[in-house]
Amino acid sequence: MKRSNTRDISSFFTKKPTTENASQVQRSEENPIPEINITRAPQPSAQGSSPSVTIPPPVVDIVNLSHDPGKRKKLIDFHPNERDLVRRMYIQRGPCQPVDHVFPKTLFGTKERRFNVKWFDSSWRPWLEYSVFKDAAFCFICYLFKAENRAGGDAFVSEGFKAWNIIETIRDHVGKHTSSHNNAVIAMELFTKQKGSIVSALSKQTDEIMSAYRKMSDIIDRYQNMKTRREQL
């Protein structure tokens, strides 16, 4: 018996494209499909470097700011955005003046000397402070407002002054009108007035807003009363 494996003779010939197929082929040749470029994400280097991340400065711990000048952190060591806050907190506290402290004596030659508590009641009261921790005197105003571009060497700001036998050194710290100390005094006065003027301006602005609001309320009430009367007529 013969196998029925007969194939159509048309399968041995390539089909002639129709008019529609030919036009599609021509369009595809004229407008080829654009190539797609795939850009890969950059791979980390072999050293495993990671992108930089900006970390906000930490919030200053107001509660634990030491009142003793011998234990204080230098103002320049605070973040620039925190320094004004630190200044305000210390101004509210005032200089460290432990009047009830028993000041220890130090031998200078053949005599013993110590910090005199009466110095707190003198003209030095606004700035003179004492460190129990270091048994030394410091300048409260210079700590807060001494210009950062001024060179060091001032014991009243850095390590403290404790040569109780040379009282002139405390007087000399204030110096003349253009001294570093007096410049710090001016800076503190400007700082205090600036903060006070801001609070005053905000208070004044609030009063003006409330006054304008009350005037507007009166106008609205009058308008409503006039409208009610017209409707009743």
Word description of this protein:
By secondary structure, this protein is mainly alpha-helical. The protein is 38% helix and 6% strand. The protein has five helices and four strands. It has helices spanning 19-30, 83-93, 140-145, 168-174, 180-232; strands spanning 106-108, 111-113, 128-131, 136-139. The strands form two sheets. Strands 1-2 form a two-stranded antiparallel sheet. The chain has a two-stranded antiparallel sheet with strand order 3-4. A hairpin with a 4-residue loop joins strand 3 (128-131) and strand 4 (136-139). It is elongated, with a radius of gyration of 42 Å. Residues 111-204 form the TTF-type domain.
Shape: elongated
**Residue-averaged pLDDT:** 75
- The oligomeric state is single chain
Which sheet architecture does the biggest sheet show?
2 strands, antiparallel
The tally of strands reads 4
Q: Name the helix and strand elements from N-terminus to C-terminus, one letter apiece.
A: HHEEEEHHH
Number of helices: 5
N-end to C-end Cα span: 117 Å
Rounded to an integer, what's the Rg over CA atoms?
42 Å
Region (Disordered): 1-57
Biased composition (Low complexity): 41-53
Domain TTF-type: 111-204
Protein name: General transcription factor 2-related zinc finger protein
